[in-house]
Amino acid sequence: MILGVRSYRKGASASDYLMASREFKFFILFSAVFGANISAVTLIGVPGTSYHVGWITWAYFGTAWAWLSPLLFYTIGNRSWLLGKKYDIVTISELLGKRWESKGLQYFSSLFLLFYLIPYLMVGVIGGGRTIYGLTNGFIPYWVGALAVTIVVCFYVFLGGMRGAAWVNALQTSIFLIGGIAIFFVIAYSLGGFNFATQTIADKYPELLNRTNMSWQRFFSYGIIVSLAVPVFPNVFSRLLTGKKPSELKKTVLLYPIAGLLIFILMAYAGMWGRIPIPGLKGASSDGILPLLLAKYAPAWMAGVLGAAIFSALMSTLDSQLIAIGQIFLKDVIIPIRKSDTLRQNDVIIGRVLVILFALIAFIGALIQPKSIINIIEWSFGGFACMFLPVVAALYWKRCGKFAIFGSIIVSQFLSIALPLGIVPKSILFGMLPAFWAMVGGFITLFVLAYITPKQETELSKNFFSVFVTPSAYKPL
Amino acid sequence: MGRHWKEILIYLCAAILLIIRVDFWWWRKKIYPFIFGWITIPMLYQFLIWVAGFALVSYICISIWKDPDEV
User: Fold this and answer.
1) What pLDDT sits at residue A38?
2) Closest Cα partner for A17 from A9, A26, A29, A25?
3) Dihedrals φ, ψ of A169, to 5°?
4) What is the rounded CA–CA span in Å between residue A221 and residue A438?
5) DSSP secondary-structure letter at B69?
6) Tens digit of pLDDT for each residue in A358-369?
7) How far apart are CA A71 and CA A69, in angstroms?
């Protein structure tokens, strides 16, 4: 909160509030992007899932997402940064809208991004409530924890915008990385060491080592979904564009896989070992395993300090999502409606009102306490992953027209929603997650429509691709 | 080899890694930890997949990705 106050700039422009004037250097950029990505999923959902399915949870994320998402930061981030600098692009919908000079496409795609962003926003608030409840053994009610997280995040985002959030993220990322290591060692030590804990799991719960509770089809499809979804998370995408130079993003990409793997390994083993002292948690209640372990084994002060690591992770994502919602509303809805090209000074006020409004919506949604964090996330990630191909087509495929993008989004999003609901028979899934087939459907539609619809080569699209005249750029297809 | 083809090769390698990452031949087999008493062969295999992926990312960053001001 102090950093939020320090980062407050009286009379800051809307562009500065939303994008911090695109001036982040390596450490702040890494923290901003990594913090936006690492959420309640990692410090609450991963131990919770690992409790039921075992060590494979770290590989579920780590052996695809940890390296493939950074690789795709290059694919998408490098070109988007160049375009962002030239055309002041901030959001994915804006990129699509400007590439094809289509406000319809901009509105349409932003609708889907908001549709998936709001449940994802709720996850952070839910995580805050569950953590406080677990750490205090139920003394502090769930709703108080959820409210506390909402108020703190709202405060520093309201004041500092993107810059304030990124400064706080630098602190939060350090806290949850160091805290994650500490939590891992405290739990391992309390259970008799890595060796003893794992041998006990092998004897009492062999299914956690044998991967009986997760199918390989799910493992395969989720690896692809999560890796493709992250670069097109609205909150991650906009942060990829905040670096001062591409070299700042390059250093971020290089460090990303190491930090990513580390945090997932630590959390997955801690969650799996947690089954030994605290057996019998059913379903989503396992999301509270880490706070429960800390309350059981760490002294109160240490549990509080380590609990801060969990809060850091979930708040760093929550703040980025609130800013992303402000960006989408301002850049993809308000600016196109009033037919101007740039943000106005008083748009900062609109941005701040949106932060409070959506924080309130997330809090109210979190009070319903829907399914486990991982369930919400899998669905929401799937929806984002379907936006990956349109973004790649916008950046690399000169031949592709806007009708192919419309078609691809309609088909993939229809499948992404219809398959989990059973509107399309689940028998066609072959064990894969629905979003995998949604992406396949979107890809086929994009490819077919791109070739059967007329090529749309305008002056703007020529200028668009001329930005990429660097050695690192693909020649457009 | 041109930069364009190097990039295609890297994406191809990434796709192969995503496929071989699924070690279905060990899936649901009873495997005991044997390295340091807590690491199993499938764990080690998954770690090596990450190492290969990290090598691809490093290659992109070091050899392919050039800043506009570096050109």
Assistant:
1) 86
2) A9
3) -60, -35
4) 11
5) G
6) 899 989 988 886
7) 5
From the CB of residue A84, how many other CB atoms can be counted at a distance below 10 Å?
24
Interatomic CA distance for residues A477 and A136, integer angstroms: 57
Cα–Cα distance measured from residue A188 to residue B45, given in angstroms and rounded to the nearest whole number? 23
Q: Shortest Cα distance from A14 to chain B (angstroms)?
A: 28
3-state secondary structure A232-283: HCHHHHHHHCCECCHHHHHHHHHHHHHHHHHHHHHHHHHHHHCCCCCCCCCH
pLDDT of residue A8: 61
Express each pLDDT in A323-360 by its tens digit. 899 889 888 888 888 877 777 777 788 888 888 898 99
SS3 category, B24: coil
Token pair, residue A152, equals 């703190």
**Position A75, amino acid:** T
Residue B28's H or E segment, with its range, is none
Q: Is A373 in contact with A126 (CB distance < 8 Å)?
A: yes
Q: What does the DSSP 8-state code read for residue A213?
A: T
The answer to whether the CB of A323 falls within 8 A of the CB of A157 is yes
Nearest-angstrom CA–CA distance, A320 and A35? 8
Angle at A44 between CA A42 and CA A47, to 5 degrees: 80
- Interface of B to A at Cβ within 8 Å reads 3-4, 7, 10, 14, 18-19, 21-22, 24, 27-33, 36-38, 40, 42-43, 46-47, 49-50, 53-54, 56-58, 60-61, 64-71
Euclidean distance between CA atoms A90 and A129, whole angstroms:
31
Residue A153 three-state SS:
helix
Do residue B57 and residue A470 have CB atoms under 8 angstroms apart? no
> How far is it, in rounded angstroms, from Cα A230 to Cα A92?
13
Is the CB of B38 less than 8 angstroms away from the CB of A194? yes
Q: Please give the Cα distance from B5 to B7 (Å, whole number).
A: 5
Q: Using the 8-state DSSP alphabet, how is residue A340 labeled? A: -
Task: Using alpha carbons, list the distances in angstroms from residue A349 to A10, A11, A139, A166, A357.
Answer: 12, 11, 38, 20, 12
Q: How many other C-beta atoms lie within 10 A of the C-beta of residue A196?
A: 15
Q: Residue A406 has which token pair? A: 């419309």
Spatial distance between the Cα atoms of A65 and A259, rounded to a whole number of angstroms: 12
A-interface mutation test, from B60, B64, B69, B71, most A Cβ less than 10 A away: B60
Asked if the interface predicted TM-score (ipTM) of this complex is over 0.90, the answer is yes
* Burial call A113-133: b when 16+ CB within 10 Å, e when fewer: bbebbbbbbbbbbbbbbbbbb
User: Nearest to residue A21, comparing CAs of A104, A92, A88, A103?
Assistant: A88
